[in-house]
Design a protein that fits this description.
The complex is a heterodimer of chains A (about 35) and B (about 260). Chain A is about 90% helix and about 0% strand. Chain A contains 2 helices and no strands. The chains are: A mainly alpha (about 35), B alpha+beta (about 260). At the A-B interface, α2 of A face α1, α2, α3 and α4 of B.
């Protein structure tokens, strides 16, 4: 149970970084293509 | 500029979508490596660098490949800087789902008490004589790279064997001994060292190795200091020092009856 809790915590803490990657990639993608 | 953006977004082609996906995956990889290594300053630098490269690419009208090369340099730098950490992450992900306990429960229950007594006897004797030692209690979950760095033993656990392996000036005394179930699986193994900078300075390489391996893999390390004879137990990257018989017994009981039989 404890192991699962730790795994969940890790999974969720990666989400903000994924969103940051999406936003950053979006900005760079537009800037380099226009 | 807004007109250009609208014009571009309405005329997106497949190659652009692939470009975007590659960028997202690459950025996420870099950010994830930096996040796992608590390199917040480099994350800020990476965000700034990306925006700068994007802006330069727009202002100076770089071809797409030049922009991608500029990012490739940064990624290469991250891979070189964090090569060990990336290797560890690959190990850990390759371990997922392989925590399965392929043990013969009956045999373990019968032998566990004897194994616990033998390990405690050896550890206490080495502590008394200031003989340095590091013993890893694993659940068949150590990467083969670590086991291959030592010498396979595959023998029953006995205090005499453990003490002989760690006897100073013998060929295997400097590495770690791996105990897997009721067997001494290997000795003289090399472990990844902890990169934690806040560890007390009096902890040597042996303690760093014990903490390092438990940071990444779900194993327990029992360490005997060569200088002081102090016994420590490392679990999940945390070190408990001055372990007495009671603590050792509880650690070993939890290994044999909970970790292995659950």
């Amino acid at each position: 149970m404890k192991k699962n809790e730790i795994k969940h915590k890790n999974k969720f803490s990666a989400i903000p970084y994924f969103l940051l990657a999406v936003v950053l990639a979006g900005i760079v993608w537009i800037l380099m293509n226009i | 500029m807004i007109d250009k953006i609208i014009n571009f977004v309405t005329n997106v082609q497949l190659v652009h979508v692939i470009e975007l996906l590659v960028l997202i995956l690459t950025f996420f990889f870099v950010l994830n490596v930096l996040r796992n290594n608590k390199a917040k300053l480099i994350i800020v630098f990476f965000v700034g660098y990306s925006l700068l490269v994007g802006a330069l690419s727009y202002l100076l009208d770089f071809p797409v490949y030049v922009t991608l090369i500029l990012f490739a340099f940064f990624i290469l730098a991250v891979v070189i800087l964090f090569a060990t950490e990336i290797k560890r992450a690959v190990w850990v992900s390759s371990m997922k789902g392989s925590d399965a306990k392929n043990w013969d429960s009956g045999a373990i229950k019968e032998n566990a008490k004897e194994c616990i007594n033998e390990i405690i006897k050896a550890v206490q004797s080495m502590s008394k004589n200031n003989v340095g030692a590091i013993i890893i209690l694993s659940n068949s979950n150590l990467p083969s790279a670590i086991l291959d760095s030592g010498v396979a033993i595959n023998s029953d656990i006995s205090s005499a064997l453990i003490e002989s392996v760690f006897f100073p000036k013998t060929p295997l005394h400097d590495g770690a001994m791996v105990i897997n179930g009721t067997k001494v699986q290997a000795a003289g193994c090399f472990l990844p060292l902890s990169q934690e900078i806040n560890l007390p300075k009096d902890l040597g390489t042996r303690h760093r190795a014990g903490i390092g391996i438990t940071e990444t893999i779900n194993v327990t390390a029992i360490i005997v200091s060569e200088e002081t004879g102090v016994i420590s137990v490392a679990q999940k990257g945390k070190l408990k020092r001055y372990a007495d018989t009671e603590m050792l017994r509880n650690t070993l009981k939890s290994f044999y009856w909970q970790d292995m039989l659950n």
